[in-house]
Amino acid sequence: MMIIPLTFGSDVFVPTAKPPEWLQVWAKVSPITRLSDAAWALMLGQPVGDSVFVSLLWIIAIAVVFAPLGVWAYRRR
Fold first, then answer.
1. Mapping DSSP to helix (H, G, I), strand (E, B) and coil, where does residue 5 land?
2. Are 33 and 12 in contact (CB under 8 A)?
3. Which residue in 13, 26, 27, 58 could disulfide with 31, CB within 3.0 to 4.6 Å?
């Protein structure tokens, strides 16, 4: 459920120069934007910069936050 809003708030569908400024700021740090930038660069054989590293940090951060919440919610039932 969380991935759908993140996708629409990224640069996957629209370049980051098109939306309002507040959405541009979010799109530049969005985990989906970083992941799509890394995927595009890897597919085209271009340098990836820090996109892969930042994507991995986002994955770890999301797992650290939501894995314990999921375990807590599961045990609560």
1. helix
2. yes
3. 58
* pLDDT recorded at residue 24: 83
Domain boundaries, the chain: 20-41+51-77
Residues 6+ apart with CB under 8 A from 38: 48, 51, 52, 55
Closest CA to 34 of 62, 68, 65: 62
| Rounded Cα–Cα distance for residues 51 and 5 (Å) | 20
The pTM for the full model equals: 0.68
Residues 6+ apart with CB under 8 A from 27: 9, 10, 11, 16, 19, 33
